[in-house]
Automatic annotation (TrEMBL):
Protein name as annotated: Nucleoside diphosphate kinase
Keywords of this entry: ATP-binding, Cytoplasm, Kinase, Magnesium, Metal-binding, Nucleotide metabolism, Nucleotide-binding, Phosphoprotein, Transferase
Superkingdom of source: Bacteria
Natural source organism: Lichenifustis flavocetrariae
Function comment: Major role in the synthesis of nucleoside triphosphates other than ATP. The ATP gamma phosphate is transferred to the NDP beta phosphate via a ping-pong mechanism, using a phosphorylated active-site intermediate.
One GO CC annotation: cytoplasm
Signal peptide span: none
Enzyme Commission numbers on file: 2.7.4.6
HAMAP family reported for this sequence: NDP_kinase
GO molecular function, one term: ATP binding
Assembly and binders: Homotetramer.
Nucleoside diphosphate kinase-like domain ranges (all copies): 3-140
């Protein structure tokens, strides 16, 4: 198995409820290392471009409004099979369907306010990381 990097966002419902540390504890307990992290307030163009793949979906407007409503924490996570492992730790998109012990089961409020984002493939991980971090900001 290979060491990978994945891109993570702690969404506004996490920062608003002061759950950054609680979510990070789950990430670290899963063996993923936080090798870059910053708190930002996403701009509308940033959010629209980040979720561009969903721009024709009915929930797109609501999704963008939610992502720019409060600060977020953007991260790079590193570890063995980090992309798949983080998706496992996150749980299903719909928190009602998420497995016990996952971040979304424990913290998510709804399908939209579902606490975290994680890249779904190596290609998207690389583009998403490059959208928010320079090489020198990632410290292994
Ligand atoms: P993400 O991209 O944020 O990691 O989440 P995901 O892969 O599990 O889910 P995806 O299908 O890519 O959807 C992106 C985000 O859009 C919001 N969403 N709302 N109201 C709805 O029906 C709905 N469906 C999706 C969620 O915030 C989801 O994480
Ligand atoms: Mg997705």
């Amino acid at each position: 198995m290979a060491i990978e990097q994945t891109f993570s966002i702690l969404k506004p419902d996490v920062t608003r409820r002061n759950l950054t540390g609680a979510v990070n504890a789950k990430i670290e307990a899963a063996g993923l290392r936080i090798v870059a992290q910053k708190r930002i307030h996403m701009t509308r163009p940033q959010a629209e471009s980040f979720y561009g793949v969903h721009k024709e979906r009915p929930f797109f407007g609501e999704l963008v409004e939610m992502m720019i409503s409060e600060p977020v924490v953007v991260q790079v996570l590193r570890g063995e099979s980090a992309i798949a492992k983080y998706r496992e730790v996150m749980g299903a998109t719909n928190p009602e369907k998420a497995d016990a012990g996952t971040i979304r089961k424990e913290f998510a409020l709804s399908m939209g306010e579902n606490s975290v984002h994680g890249s779904d493939a190596p290609e998207t991980a690389a583009t998403e990381i490059a959208q928010f971090f320079t090489e020198s900001e990632i410290v292994g």
